[in-house]
Amino acid sequence: MDLGSISALMKGLDLGSEPKDLFNDVIKVFEEFVALFQDKGQADVASIAQAELQSFESTVVNIAVTGETGAGKSSFINALRGLTAEDDGAAPTGVTETTKQPTVYPHPNHPKVRLWDLPGIGGPDFHSRTYLHKVDFKSYDFFMIVASERFTCSHTTLAREIGRMDKRFYFVRSKVDDDLRNEERDRPRTFRREMVLQQLRADCRENLQRAGMSHPEIFLLSSCDFTQYDAPALLRALRDDLPSLQRLAFLLSLPNLSADIIDKKKASLQKLVLLISLVSALINAVPLPVLPVACDIAFLLCSMISFYKYFGLDDGSLAALARQCGKPIAELKAVITSPRASDITRDIVIKLLLKEKAVPALIANIPIAGPLLAAGMSFTTTYFMMLHFVNEMAEDAERVRQTALGEGRKKLQ
């Protein structure tokens, strides 16, 4: 028996099911909890869960962004971080190259996800091997190669060198919104948006193939409207190509561009809930006078505050989104039904646990006594409370996304 057995039960778990069905779900989760201790002691299980959480919390993702001067590297970095050029901490944008050394821009809510603005490539003195040595290529998990016009031999030479060193890279064709506007202005009668995008993609592919790139991955995007074009596909590719812990860290740092991203965050956090609940019930657990359970309230509180940031529901994220979509922050907050991030306190956590007071009552009659029963009740109560919380966060995040990207919105900057 391992932690994955409990996690597997989540896939079919319906917190809104009929009482009888919910009862059966609670019993199954509790039975899996008890089974964990058949081969391992309570301390061992707690230690495993805590170690897995610490591995996630210490995971670092380093993303290198390179390209020619003026290609939109800084705007791309800001878009990935959910910032505009005028926000505090944003990468400076402009047509002149100001980056002489690799410059790191941590994600504002997830500082271990780091985007690196590398010095511009190209020019008569550019040499790919010298460049990669200069920027310390081994430090990065993958490379984004950005061009705002045609990809040149500088891009492809660099890509081949990156591939030779067994690193992943992706070709990003930026500023496609400019191409679309120009084409519509010059050919208003024959302009077809999808046809122009197809031509851009085909042109990029032909240029790269002529330079010896057999199967280039090309993504068309605009940092000024990061919900459009190939941005969602690019983020899926990045997420899927990373190892598991880095994939999770990168996913949770992403802006909520689509319902799919929110659903993926929800599924990932539901798995973290298992570990959080085990640690809360088995390490530093303090009895609660209002419930026949014990848990680490401070640890739960810290975890829940992190969930707000993962879903972009903290005040800082909402303020940045309001600036991007040109709507009052009050309009975004109005659709949030769960407790506000700034209001979450120890008392709120206890109040949410009280909503699950039926769970200990269901378990109390199971013929198991002693510390295992007490720990099981604490774990199961915490587990269901946190699952409810994650589900509510996901629903709020989707409502905020729909409100921000509603009709008549300004384009995201």
How would you explain this protein's 3D organization?
It is a single chain. With 413 residues, the chain is of the alpha/beta class. It contains 17 helices and eight strands. The protein has helices at 3-9, 19-36, 42-57, 73-80, 128-134, 153-164, 176-186, 193-210, 231-241, 244-253, 259-282, 297-310, 315-325, 329-333, 346-354, 358-364, 371-404, and strands spanning 61-67, 103-106, 113-117, 142-147, 168-173, 218-220, 286-287, 294-295. The protein has a six-stranded mixed beta sheet with strand order 2-3-1-4-5-6, sandwiched between helices. It has a two-stranded antiparallel sheet with strand order 7-8. Strand 2 and strand 3 form a beta hairpin. Helix 3 packs antiparallel against helix 11 (259-282) and helix 9 (231-241) packs antiparallel against helix 10. The chain is globular. The two termini are 49 Å apart. Residues 366-370 and 407-413 have low confidence and may be disordered.
Flag low-confidence runs. 366-370, 407-413
- The class by helix and strand makeup works out as alpha/beta
Query: Which outline best applies?
Result: globular
**What can be said about the biggest beta sheet?**
6 strands, mixed
Strand fraction band?
A: 5-15%
Count of DSSP strands: 8
Rg for CA atoms: 25 Å
For the largest sheet, list the strands in their spatial order.
2-3-1-4-5-6
**H/E order of the elements?**
HHHEHEEHEHEHHEHHHEEHHHHHH
Rounded to the nearest angstrom, the distance between the terminal CA atoms is 49 Å
Count of alpha/pi helices: 17
Assign a percent range to the helix content.
40-55%
Mean pLDDT metric: 77
